[in-house]
Amino acid sequence: MSIVRPFAALRPPADKAAQVSCPPYDVVNSAEAARYAEGNALSFFHVSRPEIDLPGVDEHDDAVYDQAPINLQKFQDTGYLLRDASPCFYLYRQIMDGHAQTGLVACASVDEYQAEKIKKHELTRADKEDDRTRHVDALGGNDEPVFFVYPARASIDAIVARICALAPTYDFTSEDGIQHTLWVVADAADIALIEQEFAAIDTMYIADGHHRSAAASRVRELSKGRLGPEYTGQEEFNFFMTVIFPHDQMHIMDYNRLVKDLAGNTKESFLAKVSDKFEVAKSGEKKPGRTHEFGMYLRGEWFTLTARSGTFDASDPVASLDVSILQENLLSPILGIGNPRTDKRIDFVGGIRGMAELERRVDSGECAVAFAMFPTRIEELIAIADAGKIMPPKSTWFEPKLRSGLFLHTFE
Fold first, then answer.
1. C-alpha dihedral over 46, 138, 118, 374, to 10 degrees?
2. What is the mean pLDDT of residues 374-399?
3. How far apart are CA 278 and CA 34, in angstroms?
4. Which domain holds residue 291?
5. pTM of the complete model
6. Could you give phi then psi for residue 243, rounded to 5 degrees?
7. Is residue 259 a contact partner of residue 368, using CB atoms and an 8 Å limit?
8. Are residues 165 and 296 in the same domain?
């Protein structure tokens, strides 16, 4: 069974939701967050990126973590964020370019995360884990949700459709053209029904937010230690905020690769080496049309690479991923990219930026070659998580991103 728990969210009044909401903290740097929030005292970046109010201070300085709860309190004092009177669920719909996805906003159980009933597919970086742990602990709550998926169920779809037929609490379009709509589920019967339906689900999966999940687990242990014998297991810090989507509504985009040089190869020698493991053809197509196919942009020309039969283990859910095939058969042996997590010669560009960004960076001389990937499928992610394996870095790019500032889960 999967535990989902309602909570009394801190959230903006309807007339302020669009001004408060902002992109998630980790898709911008400090300078970008400051520019985004400039002239907008309501921007949630003042909470999620509090260094924007401390010019010249490093984003990991103690003062930044101390500033987050101060700014959160200001948002409550000024009425930018108000608390619901009782625990609720929420339904959050996003529409981007005609694609709609509707998720349940709820709290998940740290116990289930630690027991691996909530499954992972990525490794975390210690520095990012440390940062989110300090931020959540100082703030006293989760200010940004983790993105979960669950195996779609028709019975849950029916409940969601019925509630979403009612008038929403929020409905606005953000500056990037994405529509955001929120319904508050306060009816006790609906809350009980949703809890019952999710209890029948064996496993949920982290799609995006592995560092936030790990931080929630670490903050629980810190908070538990502070309480000592008074700890009950029902405190709010035993749960963390999520938005949980059915797997069949997921939109995963390509996550493309750029390499700064050809590792001493000429264009001709490079193409000759690539053709050992891939069929290589000049192409008018930029994006690959199917799995195990890759677009490659080199010296102003697009090529289609197709993995040759027998060059990867089709029975292994990790080895058969396109990102693994490219890494093991080209990036590592030909270009010398041994560890894509740490190698400074490789960069990654989300498909939201389009093929023009790959062309621009190669044409400018910043990079020597670009690779356009076919998007990883959600079924591949689930298979890897179920097998207890880890996906290679930068395998998935989910769109649209969850907007921040529309709901918070605090430990009060």
1. 40
2. 93
3. 45
4. 255-374
5. 0.92
6. -120, 125
7. yes
8. no
- Percent of the chain at pLDDT above 90? 95
Contact of 381 with 396, CB cutoff 8 Å: yes
Q: How far is CA 58 from the centre of its chain?
A: 24
- Return the amino acid letter for 131: D
* Closest C-alpha among 287, 295, 300, 271 to residue 365: 300
Comparing C-alpha atoms, which of 386, 324, 393 is closest to residue 120? 386
Determine the average pLDDT of the residues in 108-117: 97
Asked whether residue 126 falls in the same domain as residue 227, the answer is yes
Q: Which of 284, 316, 11 is nearest to 168 (CA)?
A: 11
Residue 52 counted as domain residue: yes
What is the CATH classification number for the domain harbouring 314? 3.30.1760
- The predicted model gives 44-52 an average pLDDT of 98
- C-alpha 407 chain-centroid distance: 17
pLDDT over 90 (residue 341): no
Phi, psi dihedrals of residue 298, rounded to the nearest 5°:
-145, 125
Q: Are 314 and 280 in contact (CB under 8 A)?
A: no
Q: Helix or strand or coil: residue 187?
A: coil
Residue 329 maps to a domain: yes
Measured CA to CA, the distance from residue 221 to residue 238 in angstroms comes to: 9
Q: Round to whole Å and give the CA distance between 71 and 203.
A: 36
Res 284: pLDDT: 84
pLDDT for 402: 96
CB 113 within 8 A of CB 375: no
Same domain? 206 vs 128 = yes
- CA–CA separation, 215 vs 298, rounded Å? 41
Tokens representing 251 are: 């939109």
Q: Who contacts 299 (Cβ-Cβ below 8 Å, separation ≥6)? A: 267, 362
